[in-house]
User: Fold this.
Amino acid sequence: MNEVKKRTIAILGSTGSIGTQTLQVVEEHPDKFEVYAITANTRVDELIEQARKFLPEAVVIADESKYPKLKEALADLPIKVYGGYESICQIVESKPIDIVVTAMVGFSGLRPTINAIKAGKAIALANKETMVVAGELINELAMKYQTPILPVDSEHSAIFQCLAGEMHNKVEKLILTASGGPFRTFTKEQLEHVTRQQALKHPNWSMGAKITIDSASMMNKGFEVMEAKWLFGVGAEDIEVVVHPQSVIHSMVQFGDGAIKAQLGTPDMRLPIMYALTYPVRLPSSFERIDWNTLKELTFEKPNLELFPNLRHAYTALAEGGNIPCVVNAANEICVAAFLEERIKFTEMPKLIERAMEKATYILKPTLDDYLETDKEIRAMVKEWI
Ligand code: MN3
Assistant:
């Protein structure tokens, strides 16, 4: 049987949905993992609780106003405590760390991920925005520093699992499955009036607020197409999105001979998290199994691009390349925040994103500074419109 040597991990965004589930994976196999560092954006109470339970070497809170509370709460323990976003960018470079789980939200994942790659750490990639914004740059760095990028996103983990043992075989097509979200069967008219509460109720997956809204608007699937392109080196024209409301097939790969491999399972993120952390080994788990007696049907339909233009925007952004995916991401982050604050309608989001794509200054081969600049500019521009 395959053995996994103990891996020392850092979890960026440990209080979020992926972060807490990563810690559940650690609890499932405490002898396989050492938690070296955990970081959070603002949720200090949860972070304190996690630190006291898992006793990492270091804890970082991005929100510096919460630092004194964190410091004091952990004063009786031999844990190093830091505050500020820069500390997150630095902690990933710590020598003992083998693998960094990037589970923070949005654009903020980019710089810590780059630093971790440069320090030679393996990346368990949960922050898809990193690949959306700067996939080309990330790939170049990963190549240069010889570090693996292991997908945590369930669709990409599925593809990664289907590709195991197929290194020399030609991939014809990647088939990304999409649940279709809570508004799949809505009319255009109904979609005009959906509320924040409705959008936050995903039919199959329990996730953080940002990604749940992205799922409802299909932006998430658009981002996943971009993520797939960079992770697997497949052109956008060879990535197909299929709506599969049951979320049992997590994605598929079609090979040159027409054969298709799929990965199936219950919708539980702990499985792809664990696979990324222990690849290529599969550890046993107590997670729920598919019950073939209650599973009635697996259905498929075409995504509705009329209703969900964000998916089309993603393909357009990939075709245009350069900094345009970064533009889409920045515009989307502002739109989602505004929608969650009930300042814009659900259907305004794709319109504002499209406008940002038209108005942006195009940069063909952006550097990291160009990405930071584009992100800042587009955020300011879209905020202005709202
Ligand atoms: Mn996904």
Notes: Residues 7-151 form a domain with the Rossmann fold fold (CATH 3.40.50.720). The first strand starts at residue 7 and ends at 12. DSSP finds 16 helices and eleven strands in the chain.
